[in-house]
Predict the structure of LysR family transcriptional regulator, pca operon transcriptional activator.
Amino acid sequence: MIDRRIKFRHIQCFSEIVRHNSLKSAAQHLHLTQPAISKTLKELEEVVGSDLLVRNRGGVSLTKQGEVFLHFAQMSLAALQQGLNGVAQLQKAGKISLLVGALPSVAARLMPEVAQAFSDLAPDVTLHIHDGPYGYLIEELRQGRLDVVIGRMGAPEIMKGIAFTQLYDEHVEFVVRKGHPLLARPDIHRLSDWPVIFPPKASVIRPLVERALVAQGVGEVDTKVESVSGAFGRNYALSNDAVWIISNGVVAKELESGALVRLPFDTSLTKGPVGLMARTDGQLSAAESLFRRVLAEVAERIA
């Protein structure tokens, strides 16, 4: 039986401290004072009978006991969020919602066809599609605020507690507008002669792009704007001489129409799996099961 001394505030405070790597930041997020959140953590550790966190100059670090407790604390919060979502759906006159996170390449290439096919098969289900940075979407999934996320597989430390089902492989493209000067004499070492739209540090493709550039003897790219926004990238690349480094799925239609042109650079090192991510502890609803089937069928056609 669960110790009755453990309250929701204990689990919430502990999870937020770990997420923010700081008692002060967690307190601000929860609208508490720092002494109050310190007291709550101390109460939890007394109930558990072990130190869960160690404070250091860099913030906080988990003890062995803390790592175990965090895993199940996050599962508990995610399950509670699912319960709240379920009650909210019942209060909406029985309407069913499916919350899907989509990375930019998926949102542009895959989701329009998936949304149409899913709507045809499940007209009573409202599909909510959320986009955003990779880390944000994975955290939303982990906390139960999204049912699934579709995108590239992340690093092992990010994928803890997340199941990944591969749909297809994708690579990064170097694209420019039609008539760009670099097309006349393609040379990857001349990248810095033009503005470059480069994937930001938080993006999952950033290390792959950097590895591909290093492999071809290209160092730091001097002139760059960091973004994976499809809307910004299209307008910026089409209106000037910028070189856009982006996942193939984001620019597939523009490449097909000829509005943007692929530079003949070796991007084989950027190839990686795109798939569906879900919590390992999540229960598969009928709506999600149908969505997965539609997604797999559309992905197979596109791939």
About this structure: The longest helix spans residues 64-91. The domain at 172-270 is CATH 3.40.190.10 (D-Maltodextrin-Binding Protein; domain 2). The chain has three domains: 8-75, 95-165+276-302, 172-270. The chain has eleven helices and twelve strands.
